[in-house]
Amino acid sequence: METAVHLRTCPLCEAMCGLEVHTIGRGPDMRVEKIVPDKADVWSKGHICPKGTTLAALHEDPDRLRVPMVRGADGELHEATWEEAFARCSELLLPVVAEHGIGAVTAYVGNPLAHAMDLSRYIGILIGMSGIPMIYSPGVVDQWPKNVGAHLMYGGMWSIPVPDVRRTDLFVVMGANPSASQGSLLACPDLMGEIAAIRRRGGRVLVVDPRRTGTADKADEWLPINPGTDAALLMAVVHVLFADGLVDLGTIADLVDGLDTLHEASADWTPERVAGVTGVDAQRIRDLAHELAGTSRAVVYGRIGLCNQEFGTLASWLVDVVNILTAHFDVEGGLMFPRAAAWSVSTLPMEGLDGGAPNFGRWHARVRGVPEVLGHVPVSCLHEEISTPGEGQIRALITVAGNPVLSTPEGDRLDAALPQLACMISVDNWVNETTRHADVILPGLSALEQAHHDDLIWQFAVGSGAKYSAPVFPVDADRPREWEILIRLAGACLGQPMADVDVAGIDDGFFDVLAMMQGLDGPTLREGYSEGGPERLLDLTLRTGPFGDRYGTVPDGINLQQVKDSPHGVDLGPMVPALREVLKTASGRLVLAPDYILGDLPRLAARLDRPAEGLVLTSRRHLRSNNSWMHNVPALMKGKDRCTLLMHPADAAERGLTDAGLAKVTSSSGSLEVPVELTDGIKRGVVSLPHGWGHDRPGARLGVAGRHPGVNTNALSPGTFVDEISNNAAVNGFPVTVEAV
Ligand SMILES: Nc1nc2c(c(=O)[nH]1)N[C@H]1C(S)=C(S)[C@@H](COP(=O)(O)OP(=O)(O)OC[C@H]3O[C@@H](n4cnc5c(=O)[nH]c(N)nc54)[C@H](O)[C@@H]3O)O[C@H]1N2
Ligand SMILES: Nc1nc2c(c(=O)[nH]1)N[C@H]1C(S)=C(S)[C@@H](COP(=O)(O)OP(=O)(O)OC[C@H]3O[C@@H](n4cnc5c(=O)[nH]c(N)nc54)[C@H](O)[C@@H]3O)O[C@H]1N2
Ligand code: SF4
Ligand SMILES: [Mo]
User: Fold this and answer.
1) How high is the pLDDT of residue 350?
2) Domain range list for the chain
3) What is the Å distance from ligand 2's center to 318 Cα?
4) 228 phi and psi, to 5 degrees?
5) Do the Cβ atoms of 732 and 307 come closer than 8 Å?
């Protein structure tokens, strides 16, 4: 039997691990024998997690869609040809646009697109060219506070600095659990290995989290904190830094505006004032400020626990502020700006937004009336926009790689609203809890059928590099690729039947626009390519990126062919100071204390006096899950039930609850029943549920997941409980009652 080894980068999370995919057989009989780490991968050097080996299972999953699905007269989804599927999309979408205008159409674009070769690059066309006035995304159940901070402080919503973990000696992790997530807005293979290495070289690692996570278990110290109070803690750290004369801006002092404003704003935020609400001792807060200021290489890192909470923007902004005030910004071992080899079309500046200016509220959500922030309103507005009649009602929805019924607040209400749409088209590989409502599902390819080179993820990587993976399995040449599907959908939004859309022409135009942004002539450059599509864009963005050959004018620069010739990847070195190039604010300076963010301090101050709320719910992740979509992989579902309510034994005893007993959890939005798991590794007053479960809906086709359904925590998440200045959902820290069933 013929055997082969294919080198691939795993597209499932930010670690970007190099894999060896061993196949046997050839042609249509070829199958994967095993997947093992690629020890020679220049980036991951042999790191892997249990998800990486399941790419074959995902490819072979009998539930994965290989052909489009179209809803028939019987109300069921049936397999269809691509011609039939495109025709049905046109038949449903065109009349909506013709009768109600493009304002009646919206899209929800989900997380996997950030990791996908085609989708990450061509989503720009669906969003930019279709005329759809606004889209929804889990960005506001994720990192929008960071985007707001970056926009206001550095002048670019995607200019997000990351901790230089490989060269730091004090790593303070707030609201992140890399032992499960493998890092987020922090691409670094084997983060837990880096944490061990910090400790081996005599450094310290601190974890600030309501839960003693797998990361806290491997750290020097776990600092339990009450959910939603990190901003108060960090304001007190800032207070101490000023009060005790510890402020040092280091190498960037000449670039920072707003120091005095911040000093003034932090004047009454003493550790004693916040100790009660945070649950962190005042002396511990003082010591933390001194430790940070006194360690030459130190860094504070905040992630989803700091974003998905009531004061997400303040907390995320303060993480950067504390690093800036302690000379741990734009220097080795501190918070630094990555330099991706290929620039990402997804990070292009948004039309109508000036970096550094809080020009939000350019429009408001029709039903809830909330102002947009960086183009987004809370994703929980979507169900109201569908179900509330009137001018501007949403009648057509396109979902791309998303499962908002499980992944977004008030998912249940969205579930109930989706059948009211006149047209729902999903670009997705499974019939999941959301896409089961679609009129047409247009599937993409499995990871092993596509080429791969990360796009967004390198923008958050602790080092620069490039890694290209060729497809393992061949695919019929005439099978529409996802990039083509997105172009056709954009055309349909403009009133053209999907089959008639000039895919190549639009693709050429897209290339030309991107080339023009680099001061290059697209039509001339295109003569050098035999075909269009994502690889041509990748080559353009690599060649015009910071390490590129600029089409021959930079002698040692890189291009896609060179990357392809290096199957284990190209290492382009660690992060280097870059603030001066990154800053795109109107003043050209770093805005330390944006008025827009400071304006939220009174809301935080009011929080200090709010009485304790019984129990509050938080979220968590598990290494063998990936948001809502990998519970159909048998190997990942082995072992005990993971969808449990973590609870402190003393809180349970007060309510007559026992380990493994069933509890009823109720919030202002909903109620569900779930088994309890007792642990002393959670702060009293806090309970924790994982998200991405609730696979028991009729019509979904996820055989394995359906046998381990779990419950949907987002049925409990109140849609209006948000970080008000970013519109980001606060899925952590809302009150719930828990009682024995
Ligand atoms: N309570 C709570 N809720 C949360 C979070 C939390 O911490 N707590 N986290 C939030 C975060 S950070 C995120 S990012 C969101 C995620 O929310 P979503 O972005 O909605 O992602 P998923 O729920 O994982 O759904 C991903 C979908 O993509 C499909 N898919 C997978 N690969 C491909 C592909 O290659 N092509 C196509 N076309 N489709 C594909 C899968 O079938 C699945 O339907 O969840 C958020 N929800
Ligand atoms: N295995 C796996 N990996 C993933 C994903 C997955 O679902 N599974 N999802 C991917 C995605 S889309 C993302 S965005 C990343 C997220 O990656 P991370 O940010 O590392 O997310 P989590 O692992 O959920 O860790 C968040 C932590 O925040 C804590 N927390 C909750 N509320 C608060 C609070 O108010 N304050 C503080 N200080 N902490 C709080 C929680 O207890 C939890 O331990 O992971 C990515 N990687
Ligand atoms: S950590 Fe796991 S899921 Fe993430 S890239 Fe590596 S193998 Fe894939
Ligand atoms: Mo995410």
Assistant:
1) 76
2) 3-60, 66-86+103-133+379-452+468-481, 144-340+579-603, 611-740
3) 18
4) 80, 10
5) no
